[in-house]
Amino acid sequence: MTQLAAVERKLQVAESQVRWETYAPRFAALQDQTLTAAEVPAWLTRWSALEAELADAASKLSTHADLHTNDPAAQERFQTFVAQVMPSASRAGQALKEKLLAVPDYRPPADFALSFRRFRDEAALFREDNVQLQVTHEAQKNRHSVATGNQKVVLDGQEVTIPQARQRLDSPDRAEREAAWHALAESNLEVAPELDAVMLDLIQTRRQLARNADEANYRDFRWKELDRVDYTPVDCLAFHEAVRAEVVPLTTRMITEIAAALGLDRVRPWDYNRNNLLDPQGRESLRPFSTGAELEALASRAFAGLDEGLAARFTQMRESGLLDLESRPGKMSHAYCQYFPTTNEPFVLMNVVGTAEDVRVLFHEVGHAFHGFYSGDAQPLVWNRWSPIEFVEIPSMAMEFLTLDHLDHALSPEELGRYREKLLQGVVAFLPWAAQMDAFQHWLYAEAPEDLTIADLDARWLELDRTFHPFINWDGLDERIRAKGWQYYHIFQVPFYYIEYAMCYLAAVGIWRQAREDAAGALERYKASLRLGNAAPVPELYRAAGVEFRFDQAHIRGLMAFLQQQLQA
């Protein structure tokens, strides 16, 4: 069986799992049971198993649709599940939450206290009017997936995928980079009107979700939906300012020095890739592998050097059809880790083209997979797996750093030094982008006018881009291209989920700083924090990993100083 065939088999969903009638009797039985405090634990176990089955079907159908954005049948099957199963499941879940919350004298144990509090908050936020509106919301997001998944790029007379075109942006040949950038820009402008229309629909839907829940705006609604209880919008605004003050000047200096070393009179858009800054010596980008199979083998050896248990988990993924790494037409161009809770199996989707950035992203996504494995092993109830979103990127980002000392089989000492430098530079360059993404969404959902237009979105993005990326010279270029930078995956698919990347990158740097002094201890703390899953509050999870939950200006300044020291070394 080929690896792709194994993937397709892993994603199979029986027809019975796509029908609400399969799940309804079990929800009804849970609802009809007379429930006392003593009976709650067993009742929760049954409910958790049912929710896991639902999540399994949703995850597999969604992932299969992402792998086949050009297959109408795959799209229709997923959308049918969303439209016909999820609304009834949402209503049934709300009823069970209300039933649990009404049980006299029930006091949740410590490992369920947070989930119980979340149930209470979710029940308070629930509105019947939003059930069908969420179906509309999912359908609108799927329009974005289909549009971008089928996006074409014509480069040098050949049609290539988005990841393949982006690979050319890493070339030391400036003319090649410029040609690739223009080809991508042309492709993006072609799809932009369709994405504009999707965004306007999403904005109206999201505003209505907030109004139905009696919230002043979608930011307030989403804050509660994401269970953000450990920080406020004001803290986020302070983070934006801290990045502008502490990180933008550092990034500007770093980019300017690279440009000077290369003899560039100015930094054009094709001279800047925040994930892989240009090599100041003009060397070709690292190409550590050619095929997805080679990348798997490379990673397998790195995990074996890091930790026997982690290596065994990755081997399980390789042998069980839980990796789909190759880029191909019709496949969504993003990368992510999915999760199938009934079997406690994570699934990683990528679009690799042979770059060092692909290596980093694989370690990132497999770090998520480890989180799923470890939290699933330790936490029987499905709601207690994974973690709050303010922590969920730490397992992935920390894995980017923890594998650094285990790549000598794939990279020479010089190449490993370059890879390490790119990773550290990437943290610095990422923070202005993260602040810009978060600032745009605060404006979009809490400050933008009611009669918002696409021109307003473009103008606000331009203003923010000039603030957070002042070192890029756009003179003489079509500013429509720059203005459409907001047409990014997370803006459409997971609104307000982005500042978490910045929080967690800061924490990951802290974990790596510890690992340089005590590698074994840092790794054990890392794994222990993963096992806590969603059963511990955010600050406690950070402490378990050996770091602080902070993203204020003083903290950022200290970490930037550490990164500068490491880069100079």
From TrEMBL:
Q: Could you tell me the superkingdom of the organism this chain comes from?
A: Bacteria
Which ranges carry the Peptidase M3A/M3B catalytic domain?
A: 170-558
EC code(s) of this entry: 3.4.-.-
Q: Does the keyword Hydrolase apply?
A: yes
Record keywords, A-Z: Hydrolase, Metal-binding, Metalloprotease, Protease, Zinc
- UniProt similarity note: Belongs to the peptidase M3 family.
GO terms of molecular function = hydrolase activity
**Which organism was this protein described from?**
Deinococcus navajonensis
Q: Which InterPro entries match?
A: Pept_M3A_M3B, Pept_M3A_M3B_dom
Instruction: List the Pfam families hit by this protein, alphabetically.
Output: Peptidase_M3 (PF01432)
Q: How are cofactors bound according to the entry's free-text note?
A: Binds 1 zinc ion.
* Protein name, UniProt field: M3 family oligoendopeptidase
Q: Which cofactor does it need?
A: Zn(2+)
**Is Zinc found in the keyword set?**
yes
